[in-house]
Specification:
This protein is about 5% helix and about 20% strand. The chain is mostly beta strands. β5 and β6 form a beta hairpin. The protein binds 2-acetamido-2-deoxy-beta-D-glucopyranose (NAG) (2 copies).
Amino acid sequence: MFWSALTVGALFGQYASAQNMLRFGCSQLTIERADPLVSPGQNPAPHTHQIIGGNSFNLTMEPAVYDPPSLSTCTTCTYSEDFSNYWTASLYFKSPENGTFQRVPQFANFGLQQDGGMTVYYMPYSAKNGKMTAFKPGFRMIAGDPTNKQNKYKPSICHRCLGNGEGFAPCDAKDTSELPTKFCPGGIRATIIFPSCWDGVNLDSPDHKSHVAYSNGGGLGTPNCPSTHPVSIPQVMYEVMWDTGKYSNTAWYGSGKQPFVYSFGDSTGYGQHGDYLFGWKDNSLQKAMDALPAGNCANANCGVLKIQSAADAMKCKKAQQVVEDVGQTGKWITELPGGVAVN
Ligand SMILES: *[C@@H]1O[C@H](CO)[C@@H](O)[C@H](O)[C@H]1NC(C)=O
Ligand SMILES: *[C@@H]1O[C@H](CO)[C@@H](O)[C@H](O)[C@H]1NC(C)=O
């Protein structure tokens, strides 16, 4: 959940540089059925996403042309030069009593101040000699796969039942691929870890994946990028803190059952996925990555980056471009947006 420099040092002793990473909050920008990466221009996209980052987010974001830093006027992220967009599916509670849905809101991660959204990390696990190459303008990628129905992405995509003792590495033995099948008093944390190696050429690929690779079979990387993808890039990770604490009826959980479903109809959690669209201004991300080894750039306090107040980050909002009710906080809806079937 929260890693102080100390816990991180203890947990990742083998990665000396891991204490220096960016870890920051981004508040909600919008929640809507938009997906410029997988379904560009489609209005509406098949399922609901919760989206954070620069307010130039739109339905097309044409590859190689769209420039979020010049088109955005604000960002929901702590680092105000970060106009990237980050998104995942939304989570819904489906009442076992009457089948109606309530969107599960997100809460701020430990030590951060934000309104919904996620925690974003840029980590140096694949860095050889401390060096990493920041993403280039136009870079995009996806981790996970909404069509996946098996326990297949565990080191990269996982869920943690919070409120049972925290403080372990992401996607470790305490975490499950599945949505937890017991009541989680402290909420459910979904983790999405992206690859940390790049082919050095392509900003994207038809599946939005093959231009990047994990150095370690998935999950947190090592400084061993494969020869096909030799360039060490920052390892991006999302943490989504789902506020499930009020769904406390223990009859809803156990023997393989639990009451939550992702917006694309997945009630297992195996299909959880994340989308990344790079949009840092000029060379700001490279500057930060270069400053990591010296130790004066860590978490949400990276001295070489511009930092905005939580209040300013929370003020940045974007009206839905796909206007519909995706489940306002606390409201019950009779079906998942788009009439997506639960499976
Ligand atoms: C997205 O923004 C670009 C650049 O401003 C614009 O050309 C395009 O029409 C927009 N697309 C939509 C669907 O609004
Ligand atoms: C449906 O069930 C939930 C509890 O599972 C309850 O809070 C809600 O009020 C119910 N809605 C209706 C319309 O009965």
